[in-house]
């Protein structure tokens, strides 16, 4: 089974592209979705222990947790030390399940793939990209997003040109949904023939 890493900076269209892989029959593990599940399960007692008062009724309260972690690099490191291994274990179980089912390709959707050393966990990498002005507009259209928040997020991410330089495949989502869907089909075909 070929493990394909899917990544891209904020607002580049990664989630939409992940759905296109799913629509084409490729199983996708979404790291963000795994975090949401873990915040309602396995991670809850660990986070409550590390950050007392950050959970409510057995679920991590993201707002309360955010108050304790945002702007506090040490707290953020502690949170990442709790959540990253759990997400990785979740992804490993996902891959094992689909390997047993005989899936030829599986996708790991990892927002910070390069930043967190995830490159060694995948066989090939797809980077989604778009022109900076398209990215900026998409992000600022999100509820609660500000120019300052956007800049802070971007500062933590590897620059887009560097991600593209490290990619095995690039999908420009700024060219529209049909072009992105075609690019997904080309990648699936190329990987299927490479097996």
Automatic annotation (TrEMBL):
Enzyme Commission number(s): 2.7.1.24
Name of the top EC class for this enzyme: transferase
Keyword list, A-Z: ATP-binding, Coenzyme A biosynthesis, Cytoplasm, Kinase, Nucleotide-binding, Transferase
Catalytic activity: 3'-dephospho-CoA + ATP = ADP + CoA + H(+)
Gene Ontology CC annotations of this record: cytoplasm
The keyword Nucleotide-binding is assigned to this record: yes
GO biological process, one term: coenzyme A biosynthetic process
Pfam families: CoaE
Main location: cytoplasm
UniProt-listed InterPro entries: Depp_CoAkinase, P-loop_NTPase
Chain positions recorded as ATP binding sites: 11-16
Recorded metabolic or biological pathway in which this protein acts: Cofactor biosynthesis; coenzyme A biosynthesis; CoA from (R)-pantothenate: step 5/5
PANTHER family: BIFUNCTIONAL COENZYME A SYNTHASE-RELATED, DEPHOSPHO-COA KINASE-RELATED
Physiological role: Catalyzes the phosphorylation of the 3'-hydroxyl group of dephosphocoenzyme A to form coenzyme A.
Family: Belongs to the CoaE family.
UniProt-recorded name of the protein: Dephospho-CoA kinase
Gene name of this polypeptide: coaE
């Amino acid at each position: 089974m070929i493990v394909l890493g899917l990544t891209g900076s904020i607002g580049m269209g990664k989630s939409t592209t992940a759905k296109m892989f799913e629509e084409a029959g490729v199983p996708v593990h979404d790291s963000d979705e795994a975090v949401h599940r873990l915040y309602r399960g396995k991670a809850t007692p660990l986070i409550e222990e590390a950050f007392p008062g950050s959970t409510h009724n057995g679920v991590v309260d993201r707002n309360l947790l955010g108050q304790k972690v945002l702007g506090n690099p040490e707290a953020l490191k502690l949170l990442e030390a709790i959540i990253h291994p759990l997400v990785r274990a979740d992804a490993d179980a996902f891959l094992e399940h689909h390997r047993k089912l005989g899936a030829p390709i599986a996708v790991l959707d990892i927002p910070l793939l390069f930043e967190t050393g995830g490159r060694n966990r995948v066989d090939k990498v797809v980077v989604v990209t778009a022109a900076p002005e398209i990215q900026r507009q998409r992000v600022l259209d999100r509820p609660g997003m500000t120019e300052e928040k956007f800049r802070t997020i971007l500062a933590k991410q590897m620059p887009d040109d560097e991600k593209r330089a490290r990619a095995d495949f690039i999908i420009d989502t700024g060219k529209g949904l049909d072009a992105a869907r075609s690019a997904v089909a080309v990648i699936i075909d190329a990987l299927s023939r490479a097996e």
